[in-house]
Write a structure and sequence with these properties.
The chain has 61 residues and is mostly helical. The chain has one helix at residues 5-31. The N and C termini lie far apart (69 Å). The chain crosses the membrane at residues 6-26. This is FeoB-associated Cys-rich membrane protein. It comes from Phocaeicola barnesiae.
C-alpha cells in the first residue's frame, strides 16, 4: 500500500477539522439555556459588569 505525504497531510487536516467541530458542538450542548443580559455590555446593572469600565452603545439614546 502506497501512502504518500499528501494523504498524510489530508488525513491530519481532516482530523483537525473533525476535532474542532466536535469540540464546538460539545460546548454548544453543554452551555444550555443560561440567562444573558440584554445588550451584553452590562448596562442593565448586572453584578458581573459592576466593575466594568466599558460603555454600553445603547446608553445616551
Amino acid at each position: 500500500m502506497n501512502v504518500g505525504i499528501q494523504d498524510i497531510i489530508v488525513a491530519l487536516i481532516t482530523t483537525g477539522c473533525l476535532l474542532y467541530a466536535g469540540r464546538n458542538l460539545l460546548q454548544f450542548f453543554r452551555k444550555g439555556d443560561k440567562p444573558r443580559s440584554g445588550c451584553g455590555c452590562g448596562c442593565s446593572g448586572c453584578p458581573k459588569a459592576a466593575g466594568a469600565k466599558k460603555v454600553c452603545s445603547t446608553q445616551g439614546k
